[in-house]
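Session log. Operator J.P. requested a structure for one protein chain; no other inputs attached. Running the standard single-chain path with C-alpha cell output.
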Amino acid sequence: MQHEDCYFIGHISRKHGYKGDLLVKLDVDDPSRYNKLESVFLDLKGKLIPFFMSSCKLTQKGFLHIHFEGIDTEAEAERLCKSGLYLPLSFLPPMEGNKFYYHEIEGYTVIDKNFGEVGVMKEVVNEAVQPLFCIENGVKEVLIPIVDSIIDKLDRENKCLYLTCPEGLIEVYLD
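Structure written below.
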C-alpha cells in the first residue's frame, strides 16, 4: 500500500499502561466512525505497514484506545509512538454537494467569480491553524483560506472549484 492510496486518520500519541496499549489522537471529522477498526496501516520509516488490532475503542476524551496483535510490552509499544495511522481511500464515504476531501480537489481548476481563472489546485495546506488552498498560477502560488462562505460550487465532473474570494485577496499574490 502506498501513501497516495491512503488517508491519514491520526497518530499514536502515547502508551497506555504497560501491556502494549496505545492512545491515538484522531484527526478526523467524526471519530465515532473509527471506533471498531480491525486493522490500519502504520507509517514506519516512510513505509506503510499493516497492523491488526485485538481491541479498539473510543475514549471519552476523543482518543482511540487500541491494542495491536503481537504488541504486548511497554517497549514494543514505545517503538510505535508518534507513528501515523492510515486507511485505504476506499474506506471514505463519497461526499456530495460542495463538501470535499482535501486530497480529492488536487488538480482541480480554481475559478474566482470576480478574478476569473486563478490556477490549478496544487494541494491543501493543513499545517496551520487555518487550512489553505494552495493554487499554482504559472510561476506563483496563491494561498486562500478555506472558508465555507467563499465556496460557490464544486464541479466534480469538470474538475472545477468555483469561489468568491474577498476583493484583492488573489491580487496580493499576483501583483
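Operator note: The domain at 3-91 is CATH 2.40.30.60 (Elongation Factor Tu (Ef-tu); domain 3).
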